[in-house]
Design brief:
Number of helices: 6
Radius of gyration: 21 Å
Strand content: 25-35%
Number of domains: 2
CATH architecture of the largest domain: 3-Layer(aba) Sandwich
CATH topology of the largest domain: Cytidine Deaminase, domain 2
Order of helices and strands: HEEHEHEEHHEEEEEHE
Largest sheet: 6 strands, antiparallel
Shape: elongated
Distance between the termini: 57 Å
Helix content: 10-25%
CATH class of the largest domain: Alpha Beta
C-alpha cells in the first residue's frame, strides 16, 4: 500500500467517525488510488454496507484491488463477520482502527490486512453481526453443512421486525421448502420464536436430546437446553421437506 493511499484511508476514517467508513483501493492507469464509498448501514451496530453502485463506479475507473473499512473505538483485529465477508468478496481487506483519546480529535491506530483463505465461521462461538452472522445465517449454515440443504439469503435491515418486514413469514418458509410440524421436534427442525417483537424474529435449530442451536444479538452463537423461556416464546416449528428421518 502506498503512503498516500494510507493517508487517504486514515482521513476518511477520521471524517466518518464514529461511523464505520468503507472504500475501495483501485488501480487506475497503473497508479493506486483510494476511493471513499458510502456506508448504507442503518445503525452503528450493523456491519457496514457498501452499495453496489459505488462498487460499479470503482470498477469503471479501474481494477479493484482491495476493500477498506474502519473499526471505530476498537482494534483493527478482523471480526468473524469480516473474515466471512472477505471470503465472499474474493478481495484483500484492510481494516483500520480509529478512536478518541481523552476527548481529543479522533485519530487512527493500527491497520490489519486479511485475504481470502477459505475461512468459515464455526456454528458454535461465532460473533454476532446482523445480516452477516445472525440467527438466520446460523440456520442457513447448519442446513448447508449438516443437512446438505441450501437456503436463500435475504437482505435485512437492523431491527427489521419493527419496520414492517417479516423474514420468517410462513409464505417465505414454505417457498424455501419448510412445512409446519406438530408433535416433538427432531434434529434439524427450525424453531421460530418471538422475542420482544410484534412478529416472529428469532430462529434456532433443534439438535436432538433437548438441545437447540441459536444466535442472539450481542452474544456468541451457542447450544442451550430447549424448554422454559425458549419453549414459551416458540410460535411454531418447521421442517424442511428434504430432511429424512428413519
Amino acid at each position: 500500500m502506498q503512503p498516500t493511499t494510507l493517508q487517504a484511508i486514515q482521513a476518511h476514517a477520521v471524517a466518518e467517525y464514529p461511523r464505520e467508513c468503507c472504500g475501495l483501493i483501485v488501480a487506475i492507469e497503473g497508479h493506486e488510488h483510494y476511493l471513499p464509498c458510502r456506508n448504507l448501514a442503518g445503525t452503528p451496530s450493523e456491519h457496514f454496507r457498501l452499495p453496489a453502485e459505488d462498487y460499479a463506479v470503482a470498477e469503471d475507473k479501474g481494477e479493484v484491488l482491495a476493500l477498506v473499512h474502519s473499526h471505530p473505538d476498537a482494534a483493527a483485529t478482523p471480526s468473524d463477520a469480516d473474515r466471512v465477508m472477505c471470503e465472499h468478496s474474493g478481495l484483500t481487506w484492510h481494516i483500520v482502527s480509529v478512536g478518541q483519546v481523552d476527548g481529543e480529535a479522533p485519530e487512527c491506530g493500527d491497520l490489519q490486512t486479511i485475504h481470502p483463505t477459505g475461512y468459515v465461521a464455526p456454528l458454535v462461538g461465532r460473533q454476532f453481526a446482523h445480516g452477516v452472522l445472525d440467527c438466520y445465517s446460523l440456520v442457513r449454515d447448519f442446513h448447508e453443512r449438516e443437512l446438505g440443504i441450501s437456503l436463500s439469503d435475504y437482505t435485512r435491515d437492523d431491527d427489521w421486525w419493527d419496520k414492517g418486514q417479516d423474514l420468517y413469514s410462513l409464505e417465505r418458509l414454505h417457498a424455501e421448502g419448510f412445512d409446519l410440524i406438530e408433535g416433538e421436534p427432531r434434529r434439524g427442525d427450525m424453531i421460530l420464536m418471538q422475542i420482544r417483537s410484534p412478529v416472529t424474529n428469532h430462529a434456532g435449530v433443534y439438535l436432538g436430546d433437548g438441545q437447540m442451536l441459536h444466535h442472539l444479538h450481542g452474544r456468541l452463537s451457542e447450544t442451550v437446553p430447549y424448554g422454559g423461556m425458549w419453549a414459551e416464546r416458540t410460535r411454531c416449528i418447521v421442517r424442511h421437506r428434504e430432511v429424512r428421518h428413519d
